[in-house]
Specification:
about 180 residues; about 35% strand; disordered N terminus; single chain; Lipocalin; 2 domains; alpha+beta
Length: about 180
């Protein structure tokens, strides 16, 4: 039992709601990310809208035109392992596409403002950039707890069956013993 509980790891939340805005720009949606280490996540998928247009997909790391510099890393909570200060993303940012083009939100240097670049090397300062956990992290070992409860239920059922059979066997055995006069 202890071995089963010890081998059940805890899962980390991997969905994050994001939103940002700037002059003529509003974007929001959900990022799917995988924990790499510390507070660093690699973004693997994105859904949402930018200026009313659906986001159609995440660009693979290092493929954003013209610079090819997106690393698709998310730092949650902000800061921690981020080399560019107390921010949710770093100077390379993450890149995505919409029907209207491709976009890369990023941090303009250490401690600098959040920016967005479009595929035409046009930059816009962002007034806000926010990330929150979309789904609370599961309770560590919750799967093991469920397994333990099922196992205990099975043991209880087995015990009741075993005791009933033992009583019947004892009753049968005692009836075979000679009786005292």
């Amino acid at each position: 039992m202890a071995l089963i509980v010890a081998t059940c790891g805890s899962a980390r939340a991997d969905l994050f709601d994001f939103s940002y805005s700037g002059a003529g720009i509003t974007a929001s949606g959900t990022l799917t990310a995988t924990l790499q280490s510390g507070n660093t996540y690699l973004i693997s998928a994105i859904t949402g809208t930018r200026n009313g247009q659906s986001i159609t997909g995440l660009l693979a790391p290092s493929t954003f035109a013209p610079c090819g510099c997106n690393d698709n890393l998310l730092y949650f909570p902000a800061g921690g392992d981020n080399p560019d200060g107390n921010r949710f993303i770093d100077v390379n940012g993450f890149a995505f596409s919409t029907a209207g083009g491709t976009f890369d939100p990023f941090v303009n240097g250490i401690g600098g403002p959040y920016m967005e670049e479009d595929g035409n090397s046009s930059f816009t300062s962002l007034n806000s950039f926010d990330v929150t956990e979309s789904v609370p992290a599961p309770i560590p070992g919750a799967g093991a707890l469920s397994y333990l409860l099922v196992l205990l239920g099975g043991a209880w059922r087995w015990r009741k069956t075993f005791v009933a059979r033992a009583r019947r066997a004892l009753s049968t055995w005692s009836s075979l013993l000679p009786r005292r006069p």
